[in-house]
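Recap from last week: sequence in, structure out.
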Amino acid sequence: MVIRAPRVEDADVLLAVLNAHARATAGVETTTSTEVRAWFSMPGLDPEEDMRVAVAEDGAVLGYADIAGDGDGPLHVDLRVPPEAALETAPALLDAMERRAAERGAPPRPLRVHAAAGDVAVRALLEERRYRVVRSSFHMEADVVESPEPPAWPDGITVRPFRPDADLARVHEAAEAAFADHWGYQPSTLEQWCGWNVRETLDPSLWFLAEAGDAVAGVCLCRLDETPDETLGWVSTLGVRPPFRRRGLARALLLHSFRELGTRGRLRVGLGVDAENTTGAVRLYEGVGMHV
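Predicted structure tokens:
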């Protein structure tokens, strides 16, 4: 087995491995070709230094890992190996990530490895290496009904679609403000934020801005290409700035997204959320029919 940096031409093979891992650990495919190819130009992720694949003697790709992180904040490891190859491959890839983490300053920078709840092999490896669970997140979904509840907008709030030529900096600023008090928050520059959120497949009509006069009170940024499942729409970012909270705005934005995604043929809507979110997000999502 060889551990090496992946190449862009590996993207399709890598995609197959990632989705084999997802099927085994979560029961669904979670990654698209567009996403994999985007990794090769992400800010804070150097393909030559920060991305690794494990390759068997016959050339088969067995697993993938990368390490990313901006500034002096935590470094995050994404380690994905299908269970049939995990016993030998996962430790070798984790070794590579830990060596790279040392080069990038961990410790003292925290090193965080993300593992799916169903990824028994990787979770056992992490426990063996004395990693400890510090936080969990949920994948939540709701069925899109034919006549979803209409959103009730707070007084003084209007909603409209995103304008790529005018709104990018304002959306970034609003998203930063909305998540500044969340666990694990690290500030991002506009360039960094765009690297993770703006893709060539962006549909501006599915990014929604809630405005109070000239201020962006909240945003709901949705996508159609989060997973290969063409029946699933995705809410990638839902955030309300602190002065506009507790007025029902997040609920209204979410219901608005349900309706809009439904008009595009999506039968379900999904999102990810911090399981210990302090703003009551899990309760909010459950209140509109979403479940873990």
